[in-house]
Give the backbone structure.
Amino acid sequence: MGKTRILLVDDSTYIRTVLGSIITEAGFEVAGEAADGEEAIRKYMHLKPDLVLMDVIMEPMNGMEATKAILDKDPDAKILMVTVLEDKDILVDLARMGAKGYITKPFSKDKIAEKIKEVMGEDV
């Protein structure tokens, strides 16, 4: 099995760059990047990544809407939300929709690698 391919979705170029560096250093591969939910759906369908790191707050389509759309098309999609929100209601909604978990900003390299491995079923 090759490296886990990850689609990075965040409206901040800086955050995508930081996440890209972290996941590359952790031994994963950046499959692609998207700056909003609509682009995330298109890129997901085209690239078929193993995992999506999805920001929650984006315009015009947010991460919750994009997550729902991707999971409607591919119920086996693995999506980890990246959020500054610790709003339990939103996190419960995300879990109910099928998101595999979340990472809060600011994030640490170790936490991201650990969460990705957990979702991908790899030994941590």
Q: What stands out?
A: Helices lie at 13-25, 37-47, 63-73, 88-97, 109-120. The radius of gyration is 13 Å. Residues 13-25 form the longest helix (13 residues). The chain has one domain: 5-120.
